[in-house]
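User: Here's a chain of 324 residues. Predict its fold as tokens.
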Amino acid sequence: MKKLLLVLMLPFGVFSQKTVSIHIEPFVLGSSFNLNTPFTGWDGKVVSAEHFNYYLSKLTIQHDGGQVMNLQDSVFIIKPADNTLNLGVLNLTTIEQVSFLVGVPQELNTQSGVAAQDISTYPENHPLSFQSPSMYWGWQSGYMHMIVGGKVDGDNDGVAEKSFELHNLGNSNQQQINLSVVQTNTSSSQIDIYLRCNLDKWLKNIDLEAAGIAHGETGVNAQVMDNAPTQNVFDQAANAEIQSVDQAILKVKSEIGKLTIDWQGMTNIASCSLVDLNGSILRNNEVNESNGVLSYSNLNAGVVLIQLLDKSGNSLALRKVLIP
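Assistant: Prediction complete.
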């Protein structure tokens, strides 16, 4: 099957200057998460989190047909009310994947790290400086990659009253995350990527009542960090999509083995492609009408990307769709 290399749609190395931000909103059970708001955990017990912070580092962006941009020196601290990564102006057009490390990388984490430095030497506003609540356990043990604390229902009366704290550290507990993403074209010069961090999945199979105050790098603390990749803690909403700069309308109807695509107001549209997550072209049509409808049948079940392009190969709209 013919493979689609999106980079061939543009002259090699010619991309746009875009201001890029990644937003990682905390979620629980499919809804926005708020501190001190009770929710029901995986085991049916009511939980109320009073704080929930974690480190994210070594960001890599795959864009424009497999080009890789390394932001390996990046370190961010993510909090429920402060979860936007402002990456500045980058030379790219279409972002396909983001990868990052959950936690502080080994070279910065402890006294054995080749780039480690005393916490007091960082500027006050640096992610690796002092935090409240603390994210640091000292020169030898290093940083806590993720902390969460609050109360859990210990007597099964539906009220969270028993305290718990998970301070998860360890120089081998960092976790790699790789996510295929769909961007939002907020404006002609701004790209935003909206991700979710699911706290309920991060705490999956963790007995908070039994854990109590758990501070360390093995046992339950290692299990919490292991959950980050294995429980799909980080994901993107199924309806995430590239939005046309001119607010053109793209409607998609998905049925068993079928797709119907209806677009309106797509100025300079030149083609419509269906692409699977491996980059294989499933269907491709040349189109030149700003308003139109295309129907496809005999499609296999799974996730496909619908991409509308202009004559220069720039994305006018992109939609990720599940075919049942």
